[in-house]
Amino acid sequence: MGYTGKQRRYRAWIAMMLIAIMATLAACGGKAEEPRIQEPGVAVDNGGDNAAPSNGGDGEASGATQYPITVTDATDVELTLEAAPQAIVSLVPSETEVLFAIGAGGEVVGVDEWSNYPEEVAAITKIGDMSTNIEAVAALNPDLVVASASMNAQALEELRRLEIPVFTSNPKTLDETIAHIEQMGQLLDRQDEATLVAQQMRDAKAQVVEAVKDAPHKRVYLEFSPGWSVGRGEFLDELLTLAGGVNVAGDEQGWFEIDPEQVLQSNPEIIIYPDFGGDMTIPDLIASRPGWEAIDAVRNGELHEVTNDPLVRVGPRLTDGLLELARAIHPDRFE
């Protein structure tokens, strides 16, 4: 099957992301730590949950961040902000979406080339993909760069050597994503907006869980890049469970290249794949695999296309993706 230039770039991005994630996990001996915030004069409690703490005291409103504020990020690097950032660069699409969702989009001066939501992002300077253009970032003179802990560690260190503040995150579950949004609200003095987004996401999660709680769990196979699926330890596996499905790849760890024979033996009832756009069709690929015509999902026409970005970005649209998964698995519960 041939691919367009855009499709080849997307496949290359997926490969780089997978390599970066595996390299980060290997370097850290496990998943990166969740970021934590330390208020002025307050010791960090490493044993608590990762929700952003309240920021009261001294007669100020609880919704206002008191600066300076100290943060220990997902790579265990400490960062102190003296004031609310006014020029932010985002190196990953999920962080771009978080910034706009909590009302900080006006402070965003640069984004990675894969950031495409919301539509206002189109007018913002692009500073490269996974191979971050350090010079382009520095030229924007940011007072904060937000990134994923799974990105190129060398690039992040180079930014820090240039005395550019960098904050990384690494949410692995829906709840951790919600907590991260709340934390960004505190970091950027956008608590009210972040609290609203977080509550909307919690409500959406609760509605889906309630809708499918008595539904039979169906065997589901996810293919989110041609020939690749996801197992336990990743948010997509969790979302699938919340949506009332059983991941047939649940015995595997993280993102992995599939063994077509193993998928055939697991006989999923439903196959879910993303809408990439263009001519890249996973159904055509599935139809070309020997023996897959006997899989229940294929025989019964239970191949369901879902929107890609909300399901692969740990940001405010993750619950939109959860709802789309649940509707694909249990359409009768959402009529």
Walk me through this protein's architecture.
By secondary structure, the protein is α/β, with parallel strands linked by helices. Among the domains are: 69-170, 3-Layer(aba) Sandwich (Rossmann fold); 214-333, 3-Layer(aba) Sandwich (Rossmann fold), CATH 3.40.50.1980. Helices cover 38% and strands 16% of the residues. It contains twelve helices and 14 strands. The strands form four sheets. A five-stranded parallel sheet has the order 6-5-4-7-8, sandwiched between helices. It has a four-stranded parallel sheet with strand order 11-9-13-14. Helix 5 (174-187) runs antiparallel to helix 6 and helix 6 runs parallel beside helix 12 (318-329). It is globular. The chain starts with a helix and ends in a 6-residue tail after the last helix. Residues 1-10, 15-34 and 38-61 have low confidence and may be disordered.
Describe the secondary-structure layout.
Blueprint: H1 5-28, E1 36-38, E2 69-72, E3 78-81, E4 88-90, H2 93-101, E5 108-111, E6 125-126, H3 134-139, E7 144-148, H4 153-161, E8 166-169, H5 174-187, H6 191-212, E9 218-222, E10 228-230, H7 235-242, E11 245-247, E12 255-257, H8 260-266, E13 270-275, H9 282-287, H10 296-299, E14 303-307, H11 308-312, H12 318-329
Parallel strand pairs: 4-5, 4-7, 5-6, 7-8, 9-11, 9-13, 13-14
Antiparallel strand pairs: 1-2, 2-3, 10-12
